[in-house]
Design brief:
It is built from 15 helices and 28 strands. It is an alpha/beta fold. Among the domains are: about 70 residues, Luciferase, domain 3; about 110 residues, 2-Layer Sandwich (GMP Synthetase, Chain A, domain 3). The protein has a nine-stranded mixed beta sheet with strand order 2-1-10-9-11-12-13-14-17.
Amino acid sequence: MIERFRIWMVRRFLARLKTPRDVARMAFRKYAARMALVDAQRSVTYAELGQRTFRIAAAWRALGVKSGDVVAVRLRDGVCQVEARLAAAECGVVLSLLAPWSTLEQLTLSLELVEPRLFVHDGSDCALILELQRRFPALIPLCLQNSEPAWLAPGPAAPCAGDIDPADTQMLGFTSGTTGAPKLMSATYGVYLSAIRLMLDNVGVGKPGATADVMLVGIPLTGAGSGMLLHTLLAGGCLVVPQRYDAQTLIEAIARHRATRLFTTPSLLIDMLDHPLLDQIDLASLRNIIYGTEMMPAAKLEEALRRLGPILQQGYGSAEVLPPVSMLQSHEHMQDGQVAARSVLMSCGRVVPQVSVRIVDEAGRDLPAGTPGEVLVKSPTLFRGYGRQPDPNSDSFREGFLRIGDMGVLAADGYLTMLGRKPDVLQRDGQTIFPRYVEEALHDHPCIKEASYVQGPQGMAMAFSLRCTHRSPQVQGYWSAELAQHLQTRIPHWQVPDSYHLFDELPRSPLGKVLRREVRARLATLEATTVS
């Protein structure tokens, strides 16, 4: 009863906040003495973060940046990038975050699309920055020097005057590009508050008190990791940004910072399960692991529950519709003290209140429960559309529902299971093969770390990597025979791969997601090399 009352009070308070700036200002004031951000170089309290945010905003205004202008930011993950995000929200400008790993041509295209007035960077690639300045002579460059920014107006500084309309554009971002070229999209200030409210209802916030939540970000802030920022500020927690996004760094960071929550991808969670350090370090502080952004193999989830305990929670969303769309809660991973059924573990949970999901066929007709089809989503966290001037009536929308590009199935009991991106679905002799079902069967073999079933140059190809305990000089032919025998009685014969290909590691995006298009490209290169 006390916990319900606390959540009710937080909801009531949150209802008075209209934009992310309101959340940040509240946190600066309410949690002034607490630690707010930690990265590999430094840490700042809420009071320090507030003053730095106001001083950065003042410096931008002194350069002529006004509310509604676009500020492009290309900074590595850490305190400085978070400060830039908060300064943008403080100013009422439109933020466009550019990935640090982007090439010159990618950056050129991005800058042409977003047309920023100010370009904030860290000077880490002088030749690239000089070339961008040559190509965009009207762009105002602002460089950070070393670990301490040289971008602060003389302090102390006051908050920005004037109001921000929740309907104004806050972000011009890009999709992750998992199945194709990234697309420009826009989202409003109000959408981010809607996401916070849904997160509060379905994920919760840490209890205010002497011991605050310590949130370790296990996904780049340039991607889905940024979704934890406002959530952590609202709770007065500490956001820890690791130096690298790999298993060893995350495991060590949990112990060093006594992290209470971790947000990461299935691939990185699998890396952690595969790392010998996992069983050697005290992880007792960890009480919640949120995983998402791609599908999690049920066999690996069962292992994680056995080794880490019932602390896992899955959320589904995307760049176009901020999470949560659905949630698989921690208690749903277990049933009567036992690990839940595979049908539950393969799902991403039940659709949350205020969000609607439809499963439709190619003609847009709703399909019965349990029938695979295209996933359509309607949510208060839905983005405005693709491009600077999005068309809400474009082919991306159907009757207010977003065509998210995913395939899935909604069971009669309400669980939503994702089956992968639409372009990755396979066809053989007129029959549809959802790669996930075959990959799930393969994951039951103890040697498998990751798997990706794709259309190869000469038929259906299964690419896979091995657990560290099973890496040996065994030849390709051995594993092909072993895995073919394993799948023989587990899947229909028409779904069986034509070939098996051992990879040291499956290719991933910088955001920690397996890239099937890269798997196909490597197989094509391998085939061409073999032929020549």
